[in-house]
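Appendix B. Extra example for self-study. Work through it before the problem class; the solution is given directly after the inputs so you can check yourself.
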Amino acid sequence: MKTFEYVRPSTLSEAVGLAAEREDACLLAGGTNLVDLMKLGVEQPRLVIDLRTVLESAVTSRADGGLRIGAGTTNSDVASAAAVRAHYPAVSEALLSGASGQLRNLATAGGNLLQRTRCPYFQDVVKPCNKRVPGSGCSAREGDTRMLAVLGTSPACAASHPSDFAVALAALDAEVQVTGPGGDRAVPLAELHRLPADDPSRDSVLGRGEIVTAIELPPLGPSARSRYRKVRDRAAFAFALVSVATVVEPGKVRIALGGMAPRPWRARRSEKALRGAALSEASVDAAIALELEQAQALDGNAFKLALARQLTIQTVLELAA
Amino acid sequence: MRTLRLTVNGEQVEVVVDPRTTLLDLLREQLGLTGAKKGCDHGQCGSCTILVNGRRVTSCLMLAVAYAGAEVVTVEGLAEADGLHPVQQAFIDHDALQCGYCTPGQICSAVGMLRELADGWASAVTSPATTHEIGIDELEIRERMSGNICRCGAYVNIVAAIAEAAR
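Solution. Structure tokens for the complete assembly:
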């Protein structure tokens, strides 16, 4: 690991100032991704800015029935919050399906959203990788593609986003609260992460010095049911091959896919096809097939298409029953 | 280099550390507490599991400088004045180890896990309908302990030991 300076700002604005000023700085919260990447040599900050004492770290119910999740709240604390378990079970399910108990006790909500891809070629500094070193090429396409994306990719990069939490949040139309040198702004969760296009090196739309402070969830109607299901190579402690978060309400279905794209993928085409429609195996199958028409599978991950189809059908119908 | 003060197994310690030092390295190299192990050094095996402020965590991914003032408990600090911690004893009684490398991490993780259970935390296998006390069965133990790997394969006895300690 390269040496660095460690600083613990005492206010959020101090943190913003430091982060804006220093291009060679990284933000630290739980550290479960950053410290790992520092050991791998993928991240080599000269300054580490510790945010844990300045970030909001609780889950609070809003007056309108929605929810506010402080970016510094640990994954464990979000998953076990009564309001999350009662009203947004897909969020709890998503978090509990990820990592291990030890990691969930450290990892934070904000860090979870901003964690970087686990593409093995991104993580191996001797391999060409356009995300890590722009223009160096992509070694993944000719290599092990099992965990890579099938939607929203580009010739430059097919890395998938590893977060389960983000997929559930995307299905629930979450909003990310951000503060930065230019003030505060809200970014829809579904638009937080960038698609690679020509520049895979930037994972998110956040600018220099911008810090995620909270995640806001709109209230759910009384008849809404939500669920998160994850399919992976092992029964526990593994990233998703394919996952689905779905919210079912009378006449309306929201579907977000995980493991399929560089960001949680809202299946907008499917949702449009199912608006007002009766939910059956046939109708959901047709709807998801419509979404997957735009998929570009690689040799090692083409199985994800059939898997996503089956998982979506099962999960939606389970809630519609 | 920075001076760092924290509490380890009930004792206040003051150390000087390179910012790159993880909590795992600090415990093993500077404090001589070699119970916690460096198995993978990337948060994937759980052999570095310790308790910080009452919660189980992977110490290999924690920068020591970030934990000034923390209360750290390692396997060396689990025993009570009059004997081993019930989880330690259960591991012995059920022969829940072979080489013993993963064992300190398993024990600390189990202690943390039992507290999470007592706090009413659900796991990925807990039925969503459960609103009362969560029953501890083999399925729950295996899921909750899935962050601790044992290459000797002592899982069957580890589960039995934890089931006993949970009673």
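Self-check: The first helix of chain B runs from residue 23 to 30. If your reasoning did not lead you there, revisit section 3.
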